[in-house]
Amino acid sequence: MGIDLWSLYRQMLRSRRFEEVVIDLWEGGKISGEMHLGIGEEAVAVGVVNHLEDGDAIALDHRGTPPLVVRGVDLVLLLKEFLGSRDGLCGGMGGHMHLFSLEYLVASSGIVGSAGPVAAGFALAAQHLRPGNIAVAFFGDGAMNQGMLLESFNLAVAWKLPALFVCKDNEWAITTRSKYVTGGNLLDRAKGFGMPVLEVDGTDVEAVWNTAGQGVERARKNNGPTFLLAHCIRPEGHFLGYPLLRKSLESMKEMVGPILRSLPARKGASLGERVASLGMITSLIGRTVSEKYSKGHDPIYRVRQRLKGEKSRLDKIEKEVEKEIQQAVDIALS
Amino acid sequence: MKTMGFADAIDDALAQAMASDSRIVVFGEDVHALRAGLFVRFGERRIRPAPISEAAFVGAAVGAAMAGLRPVVEVMMVDFIGVAIDALLNHAAKLEAFSGGKWKAPMVVRVPCGGGYGDGGQHEQSLWGWLAHIPGLAVVVPSNPADAGGLMLSAIENEGPVVYLEHKLLASNMLDFLGSGGRKTVQYDVPLEGTSGLVPEKWIPVPLGKAAVKREGKDITLVSVAVGVYRCLEAAMMLEKKGISAGVLDLRTVSPLDKETLCQAVSKSGRLLVVDEDYRDFGLSGELAAVVLEAGIPLRYNRVCTEETIPYYRELEDQVLPNTNRIMAAALKLLER
């Protein structure tokens, strides 16, 4: 099967436009609680999920929307679930962090790292019941410090499980820069379990598709698990309404207030340490904002640049996607 | 006295303690951002962001406490304590017994809990009964800023491990972080009296294991913690309009449990209605009935608790969590008999 960049672009755009609609609904108060988006991860979702066949399983983290959209889960059911509707994908019980599709063998969880053990179990079931089928786990680099994920790497290698572990490396662990809290490097870490590793620019959908294919094939041939490290971005922050991306100082008061009160307080760290702390918080805000507004790492922008020569074909796809998403919204809200 | 928010009061009491005791260190996910004020004042050595490795850093808190520090370790939500439960269940809670009383782990696990803002059943649990089930763990659940600060001081001073639960509807920074996200388009049923209130100029400890009588009443005693206390107070006012005198007891700590105050209140009214946001079965609500019965006090009993996995769907969530309507119905039924 050769690569079809146009098809991959369409799928990425579907995911992006779907999540942009989710932003509007969330802003309008129609979606409660937290809302973690997969914007910035579309090339990883599309490049991996396009290799999957019937009977393959997926374990997802709290950013599970793009793989579900790509896998073909009904957009209306997804939207209705986010809206908290009794006829949503999970009867309104789960919401966006706890999405399940028995039909597609997809399960998600808001517990960081938990996709690892679940995928290992999915792979074990495939080994017994559906030889040739595989399991994929999606998780972030933050999860790479979670014991259960690393334990499942070992389990998958020891039991030669047909699994692909996909680490979406956006260099963040919630509001913490991963490098501050992570020792060594992630590829070496996975290698240490005796697992083949692959590394890819996760904002380049063609590269992801090509690279992920190797891991998928290995698993399908029952040659054991593979670790795929895909570098990507997180332009919307950890979740919508992320404090570091608020537009006004007023809306940041929960964070700014305590800082201003504490800065001159008697007793505590030296002035130098206080300035260092302030500097770290400022640098986190700077990094978050620059990630939001830099286009060079936007996977959709990148693939579109390659296809823009055929403008009429692009227009057609974009109009079709727009229509599909709008129809889903209209039905979900009606 | 001055006015302070719930989470600010906890941070303020913690800052007071940290300023006078250099053994107190804070670590956990995102603490530099969640406790930005403390991070700026005390620096990275004492306010230390941790990787998403709950089993490791809660376990490390146990070791650090055993070896002389007084850690206040933060887990993002009580639901995630599942990942780290071994450190609490098999280590922190057992140390004193295993060492023949010679060695204790003076640590505080500070952790947001509770629902009511549409985050789903894996992010909105209470779990205080589940934690209090374990001998050797103290479990603190404050309902207002003054108690929150005072109980934090006691938790820090306690010689054994304390799980300090901070309800997200009361801690406005957590609700803003997780529920509202800076939006004005969502509304949650927040008991404002609990989110902000008078606190002392200088913090003094509020003792663990001491309940607070929020309202005297001779016909029925409503008992709860955290947000449930305000739901009870609201119901008590509605009952008063019907000529029923309802008392309200805020346990403040689930373990150690203030059995004496509980029994005193119930022996006067003869009717106990427990309002518990934690799960109903095998938990705090049943325990309170057992305590009163064991004391030989004749009892009429009812309870309003969370009976199932908390739904994401907002309307249903509000029905599943204890609400005033359910409390009223349960109270009136109890008074009928």
Summary?
The complex is a heterodimer of chains A (334) and B (337). Chain A is α/β, with parallel strands linked by helices and 334 residues long.
Describe this structure in words.
The complex is a heterodimer of chains A (334) and B (337). Chain A is built from twelve helices and nine strands. Chain A is α/β, with parallel strands linked by helices. Chain A has two domains: 5-233 and 298-333, 3-Layer(aba) Sandwich (Rossmann fold), CATH 3.40.50.970; 244-292, no CATH class. Chain A has a seven-stranded mixed sheet, with helices on both faces. A two-stranded antiparallel sheet of chain A has the order 6-7. In chain A, β2 and β3 form a beta hairpin. In chain A, α5 runs parallel beside α6. Chain A is globular, with a radius of gyration of 21 Å. Chain A starts with a helix and ends with a helix. The mean pLDDT of chain A is 95. With 337 residues, chain B is of the alpha/beta class. Chain B has two domains: 2-199, 3-Layer(aba) Sandwich (Rossmann fold); 212-336, Rossmann fold (3-Layer(aba) Sandwich), CATH 3.40.50. Helices cover 44% and strands 20% of the residues of chain B. Chain B has 15 helices and 14 strands. In chain B, strands 3-2-4-5-7-6-12 form a seven-stranded mixed sheet, sandwiched between helices. A five-stranded mixed sheet of chain B has the order 9-11-10-13-14, sandwiched between helices. Chain B has a two-stranded antiparallel ribbon with strand order 1-8. In chain B, β6 (138-140), α8 and β7 form a beta-alpha-beta unit. In chain B, α1 packs parallel to α8. Chain B is globular and about 60 Å long. Classes of the chains: A alpha/beta (334), B alpha/beta (337). Chains A and B meet through α9 and α10 of A and α1, α2, α3, α4 and α9 of B.
